[in-house]
Amino acid sequence: MPKPPANAMSESAPIGNPSQESLLWYGRAMEHLVEIVQQLSLARDLNKVMEIVKHAARDLTGADGATFVLRDGDLCHYADEDAISPLWKGQRFPMNICISGWAMLNRQPAVIEDIYADPRIPADAYRPTFVKSLVMVPIRTIDPIGAIGNYWAHSCRPTAEQLKILQALSDTTAVALENIRLYGELDKRVRERTAELETILNNVQAGVVFASAGQILRANPKAAELFGFSSAAHFAGQPLPALLPLTGVEPCASEPGDTQAAERVFDTELELECQDGGRFWAHVIGQPLDPAIYPQGAIWLIEDISASKEKESLLVRMRESAEAATQAKSAFLASMSHEIRTPMNAIIGMTHLLRQSPLDDEQRQRLRKIDSAAYHLLSIINDILDLSKIEAGRMEFEDIDFALGEVLDHTFSMIGEAAKNKGLAVLVDYDNAPLWLRGDPVRLRQGLLNYAGNAIKFTERGSIVLRARLEAEDGDLLRIRFEVGDTGPGIAPEVKAKLFEAFEQGDVSTTRRHGGTGLGLAITRRLARMMGGDAGVTSEPGKGSTFWFSAQLHRGQGAGQKLEAARKLDAADELIRSRAGARILLAEDNEINREVALDVLQAVGLIVDTAINGHAAVEMARAHPYDLVLMDVQMPELDGLEATHLIRKLPNWRGIPILAMTANVFEEDRRNCLAAGMNDFISKPFDPDLLYGALLQWLPPKTNAMKATAPQPLPTANTLEASLLVVEGLDLVQGLAMLGNRWPLYLRTLTLLADKHGQDPEYLRRAVAENDTAGMRSLAHTLKGAAGSLGARSVSQAAEDLLAAAHREERDLSRHALHLATTLEKLVEQLHRILPAAAN
């Protein structure tokens, strides 16, 4: 076939209005590329791929030389070349000093018409060579794994069509390299699997016999043992019927072209005879082999079942009994499912309808509690109904930081109305337990609600106490004991022993009056044991009862602890005293994050200029001197890493502190920030006091610091505050603390969150439909910082889960993205109902 002309790269073709000659060249080049693709599809090793690609690169471009570069960690390995004189075959260079590294790091082609006039080329790098012009194309634009280079001894610049051809060759090469990797893995797996099968064959506790055309070809040691032979070699060449009397049974064999062979599996129980005349019962399975490879071939498995035959009658009775119990349990759970879900659907549905009608604040707050209780109950119904899942230990547990007070207060709020209606006092006692813990607060609440619900049912007068206390500690590991005490009728000793068994109830007549399933206590004990604890009860008739469960938890880290530690340092006061008047450049593209940071920085007397993207940050740094830069990492047009790299090249900028701000908190992100020239790393959403601490560390003291005072918290609107306190997924206390308890700023930024990100759930679902993982990650990154800065913990956590899944390179992020969309949508809907007055 005709190939592109040798001077292809020197031919110019007008971009947007190509000449006839250029179109003809492009057609021939594409034909040649198809031939190259066919050659690469047959390549099975790296050397073959490089041989094809380096010649193809020269053929397609008419270049004087071509090189094949592979990425080796932080080095560029010039693995092969085809040139008029030697270049760098076999050598390795750091990625940041060679043009192939530039192409890979920037994920785009490098086109250089004059290597001596391009700042990316070290001055003396090409002097020993013939090279005047070059094109370097990355192999794979997403996470490049190498590059293909073309060199000319004369000045040459490719057209857009010619670059497309080179990029197509690069993309084809990426596929070929991936195929080689897969072939290597498959070959390795085949060798490993063959060795595994040989090991299994020799050690499996069943006789294995391989036969073809009625003759035994091979058997394993267990088969020899079953039939009383000293070695499996005795079977070779023996007729199969001598071993397996299959009279009257169609042979388990197949002929070429027999498409039904795999379906004719022989499976029976036979009494077989050993060589010494003894007999044993065996389970025999015959499986035809692929007739195209082994005509009339089959493999036979022989298992000694003599002992099991003797117990068969007993096993049948036990099986029938177990099946009857399982059917009874299934019928019970099915009935309970219907009984629970029917009223639950009514509660949730009617609550939703009521919330759409005009309500005063007190009514809305009560409906919120009903809705919260209903959804909490609905979230655990499946686990309660499927008791077998709990018994099998397949329930998943969270491991998150939480406030102990939130768990106890939530339980208090859930039973408060019922206790009030019965005239019961409810007390909460934290005793000596740490305020912040790490574990699964949902399962702890579930156990407390099981106990507290029973206490309300069976206590007619007196009080209920919810208690948590530290039972033992070993460094960071704690055992916390949770108790629910009541002044009810108490429990008789003979009843206590069976209370925690599934489907057992203490007093049938009392239970019938109050309701109950007999599952709550059993579930609580199983949950406690799965969390490394236990459960029980102390009680005497007439003296009330105390139900308890324990769990192993860890010390947690909460916003309160961090704020308290920061207050002890008086970071804000010190900034005002010694750094006020310092000039800060804040580069942040998100409007909410920018406004929050601006207010926090100005509160301590700092002068702040803002840039909404990396380009603007570089230009402002070029035009003005600053004492410090706060640089968001992920920004449009030019990200924070590249912006920092460019700023560091400016005069007098080598020693100015640049601090990264990002929602990505993985170690490699920290390393990338430091490698780009940043001095420190602040994760978003940022804690103002921790930010102040970082500024104290990096901002030099000023001799003429302005006198300023920290702003005082403004009065709150009680009604609005009460409404925000019950918003699901919003930690009002933490959000206010993050903004220094500045109520107007908090309302303003919370309204901004609802307005600016109200359409994000739709964007996330569209990204899922289009499998746009980059879009999912970008939105999650933005939402983590914006929501976290305002105490919107559910949205921030959902965003963090998506980013963590992306970091683990999970192939499907849709589950996390849809959860984030639903969580955000729910929060925005609540905020829109509450915040219109605040926005005004």
| Span of the ends, CA to CA | 74 Å
Low-confidence stretches: 1-17, 508-517, 559-569, 705-717
Look at the helices and sheets and give the structural class: alpha+beta
Name the beta content range: 15-25%
What's the mean pLDDT score?
A: 79
Binned, the helix content reads: 40-55%
Apparent shape? flat
Structure overview:
Strand 19, helix 18 and strand 20 (about 605-610) form a beta-alpha-beta unit. The chain is of the alpha+beta class. The chain is flat and about 105 Å long. It has 30 helices and 23 strands. The N and C termini lie far apart (about 75 Å). Helices cover about 50% and strands about 20% of the residues. Mean pLDDT is about 80; it is low at about 1-15, about 510-515, about 560-570 and about 705-715. The strands form four sheets. Strands 12, 13, 14, 15, 16, 17 and 18 form a seven-stranded mixed sheet that branches. Strands 3-2-1-6-5-4 form a six-stranded antiparallel sheet, sandwiched between helices. A five-stranded antiparallel sheet has the order 8-7-11-10-9.
What keyword list fits this structure?
about 850 residues; seven-stranded mixed β-sheet; alpha+beta; disordered N terminus
Structure at a glance:
Helices cover 48% and strands 18% of the residues.
SSE inventory with pairings:
Blueprint (H helix, E strand, L loop, with lengths): L19 H23 L3 H16 L3 E8 L2 E9 L8 E3 L4 H8 L3 E3 L20 E7 L6 E7 L7 H44 L3 E6 L2 E5 L1 H7 L12 H4 L22 E8 L5 E10 L8 E8 L1 H5 L1 H44 L5 H25 L1 H5 L8 E4 H18 L3 E5 L6 E4 L1 H18 L4 E12 L2 E10 L6 H4 L11 H7 L5 H11 L4 E5 L5 E11 L3 H11 L1 H8 L4 E5 L3 H12 L4 E5 L2 H10 L4 E5 L7 H9 L9 E5 L4 H9 L4 E4 L4 H11 L19 H8 L6 H7 L4 H14 L3 H10 L3 H16 L4 H15 L6 H21 L1 H4 L1
Parallel strand pairs: 13-15, 19-20, 19-21, 21-22, 22-23
Antiparallel strand pairs: 1-2, 1-6, 2-3, 4-5, 5-6, 7-8, 7-11, 9-10, 10-11, 12-14, 14-18, 15-16, 16-18, 17-18
